[in-house]
Amino acid sequence: MSAKTFRGNLGHRAAAGEVRPRKSERTRQAILDAALDFLWTRPFRDLTVGELMAMGDASRPAFYQYFSDLHNLMEALLNDLRDEIMAVAQPWFEGEGDPVPLLQETMSGLVRVCYRRGPILRAVADAASADARLEKDWRNFLKTFDDAVAAKIEQEQAAGLVPPLAARPLAVALNRMDAALLIDQFGQRPRGNCVSR
Q: So what's the pLDDT on residue 188?
């Protein structure tokens, strides 16, 4: 992200009728966006507060108004990503009717989200092996989806749509395969070309 873009994000003017985010929300989001931009080409271990804030000509103290450290920043990125994924997964998790189109809609949304924000997955998954704090965040992130997918499998088993297999191990296996594929395709540039329209 260029300094101009960073400052532009800070000075965004809302269109007529739009609720304009407070300056503090815009500043926080600009920092998150700068971190995402950094992660497209470099690993988390190379990220420093000084370099991140220099990307937008902002001061180090501005960073610490919103985040206690870089780990806290990564937690925020991962939590935002989790929330976005859960939102696009709602058709399958909560939908009624034929599960195949609901799952297709959910998977299409998942690909769109990860196409835009894939480096977060790569950065946390890569750093987790050497960083206990990020390892815990990564495990909690994956557990959220393991719990949700296992519950959905059990629901579909009760409806007779899925054979009686152990739901939890199946959910874990499916989620790890999805995560590996999404990281491989969308974790860095150039991204994979399997974005559904």
A: 81
